[in-house]
Amino acid sequence: MSLDKLISKCLDLDRVAQKQLYLDHHSYIMSIANRYADHVDDAKDIVQNTFIRIFTHLASYDVKSGSFNAWIRKICIREGIALWRKRPNHERYFLNTEVLEVPITEDILATLTLAEVDQVINSLPEQHRLIMMMYYYDELSHKEISDLLGINESSSRSKLSRARGHFELKWKLINE
Amino acid sequence: MNKDNKYKALFEKPTPDYDPELIWADIEPHLPKKQKRRPVMFWLLIGFISFAAIYIFNVSYANIAKKETQNQSLPSINIGKPIVYNNESAVKDIKSKSIINEPNQPKSLIETKMKSSSSIGKSNNTNQREASKANISNKAFLRKVNLEKQNIKNINKLNSTVLVKHIDHLETKGNNLNPSDNQEKQVDLLHTELTQSIDHAIVERARVIIEKLSSNNHSQIEVNFVNHSFDALGRTPNPLSKNLKSSFFMETNAFVGHTTQSLSALKSESDEYVKFKKYHERVVENFGFNILLGYKKQNFTIATGLQYDRITEILTADDLTITKYNIISDSALYLENSNSITYLSGKREVTRTIGKSIISPNTINRWSIPVRLGYDVGLNAKMKLNLNIGINFNFVSQYEGIAVDQGLNFIYKDRQKLDQVYKTGGVHAWMGGASVHYLISKRFSLGSGIQIQSDLTSQIRNEWNTSQKYNFYRMNVSANYLIF
Predict the structure, then answer these.
(1) How far is B5 from chain A (nearest CA, A)?
(2) pLDDT tens, position by position, for chain B (484 residues)?
(3) Which residues numbered 139-158 in A keep a CB inside 8 Å of some CB on B?
(4) Which of A31, A59, A167 is closest, CB to CB, to B7?
């Protein structure tokens, strides 16, 4: 069944069609949700909330505005951000104080392995990491990022630049 | 690998194992359920079909028993005192009362009226007109929207572009706006509220929502509505139609019901005939159909087309012919099925009875042109009540059945030939009715209801000097299709 027909049946509240739509896209949504979640239960919550919102707002999907995947992707990202906002404040900033207390220099970065690079990523303030992920992985514009996170567009740019600075150095070191 | 891809690769994360069925089980209870079809229309339709079937079955031709005794002589003997005739007397024939020519076989988003963009708080003549049309005072509307120019943390200005769509698919949602919700969510919820409101007063609903938003101290709220007009069924008219509030439609109705007649004699010599007809004849069912082409503007409709009505009368009577004649016989005559012997010297009288009982359905077929005015009352987004009144201009009616002559004798007509009934022109009737329609799709609806039709002018039968009118009480089913 084509996607248009499936969506049409979902709008008629055909439960079989709705489940089919879910089964066709749940793995895609889970791959996005997983990046916004700390653990699998949070990812499942994001997936669940995403599909509830998809089916509730399916009537507002306009094929002219973009692909269906792009539309559901945005919904999922919003749900991911919403879940991130619900976390207690101290969880928003994952700080490896040991790392941050030591200034990052070229010598130090040269000794880092890839696993430690991951640790560097996770050591960034959550918002920095989110912005980096949304910009590079989800390919959102700064305007979209600022709308989602409720920050200024210029703030989004500066945070991305700061996060990227850390990796620029290390990548240069790894690839030399 | 370029820079962007390398950063992208950093965020790759393996998808965890999970059971999608478990997640679906948590999703499904939150999904809107398909509304069960209202049983009213279904049972109304079933009731109408059952009524029509039983009614037609009871008076159908299959239940009309014809007892034909034509061409069957029933010899009988006048038991009693023998009649003695003189030999010289001729056979005396008693002529029959009538000559039998041949053995005849008895033979049914919501006018938003909000145009383009409207900034709340700014004087807008369009808003004033439309708000007043929606029975909402514009002053009260603006007064309640409390705009406070304050800088809100992370939100300086809320600009919401809301496209109002699919107002005919409505459900109530109980989303509450939380002051701590971010701009995106509030816009989203606003959209949800407007597109999922069952309330027809879309402006009222918007006011409530904007009240909530304004209470969160937003400095400016701009809500853009797209103008939609809906008919009483909640359907969006064809965008090709310039005037969204008017449209053409096609409708077909089928009806069945009970008929009564009023019969009167125009001259005194017809009194016997009228008595005879009233005694022997009863009008039973009628059924018919029409096809209409109509025009609808706002809630008013006008339609015309072609209508067919079939009226059935049941004639019940005895048609007997008694013939008595004498035969010459020199011997006793033993008659079959007779317990006595009558011996006549020379002559005896034989009585033959030829006759039959008549139970005949006679029909009148009418073709007429109806002109109907109607008014739609919206019951909800899916249903409407249609009230209509009109007149039928009958242009041809034909009668098929058994007639009676001036001597109250039956004249058996060839049923292949239909007699023109009206010598003085067609019979016109007024009609009125009410039906409930259910919207099946945006253009198509089905309905069922009741109708009364009554002859305005009389059916004049010159040969009998009688005046006859019919009254119809019937149920109808109808199908309506919006053309454009």
Answers:
(1) 8
(2) 455 666 666 666 677 788 888 889 888 888 877 766 555 666 666 777 776 666 555 555 444 433 333 333 332 223 233 332 233 332 232 222 222 222 332 222 222 222 223 333 333 444 444 433 433 333 333 333 333 232 222 222 333 333 322 222 222 233 444 444 555 555 555 545 444 433 334 444 444 555 555 555 443 344 433 333 344 344 444 443 334 356 889 999 999 999 888 888 888 877 887 887 788 777 778 999 999 999 988 789 999 999 999 988 887 777 766 565 666 655 555 444 445 555 545 555 666 666 667 777 788 888 899 999 999 887 776 788 899 999 998 887 777 777 776 666 666 654 444 555 544 457 789 999 999 998 887 788 899 999 999 998 887 766 667 788 889 999 999 999 988 6
(3) 147-148, 150-151
(4) A167
CATH number of A91-176: 1.10.10.10
CA distance B10 to chain A (A): 8
| Residue A3 in tokens | 């996607």
What residues of chain A lie within 8 A of the CB of B16, using their CB?
30, 34, 40, 43
Q: Return the H-helix or E-strand segment holding B440.
A: none
Q: Let me know whether B262 and B152 are in one domain.
A: no
Boundaries of every domain in chain A: 1-87, 91-176
Q: What is the DSSP letter of A148?
A: H
Residue B84 lies inside a defined structural domain of this protein: no
A1-87 and A91-176 share one CATH topology?
no
CB nearest to B169's CB, from A23, A27, A59: A59
Q: Of the candidates B343, B371, B379, B362, which has an alpha carbon nearest to the alpha carbon of residue B59?
A: B362
Q: Are residues B311 and B414 in the same domain?
A: yes
Residues B385 and B413 reside in one and the same domain: yes
Q: Do A55 and B31 touch (CB under 8 A)?
A: yes
A18 near B CB under 8 A: yes
Residue of B362, B432, B361, B372 whose CA lies nearest to B397: B362
Going by the DSSP 8-state scheme, the letter that residue B2 receives in this structure is: -
Q: Do residues B397 and B422 make contact, with C-beta atoms less than 8 angstroms apart?
A: yes
Q: What is the ipTM of this complex?
A: 0.73
pTM of the model: 0.41
What is the domain count for chain B? 2
Query: Which residue is listed with tokens 């009668």?
Result: B399
Q: Cα–Cα distance between B190 and B211 in angstroms, integer?
A: 11
Name the fold adopted by A1-87. Answer: Rna Polymerase Sigma Factor; Chain: A (1.10.1740)
B188 and B255 inside one domain: no
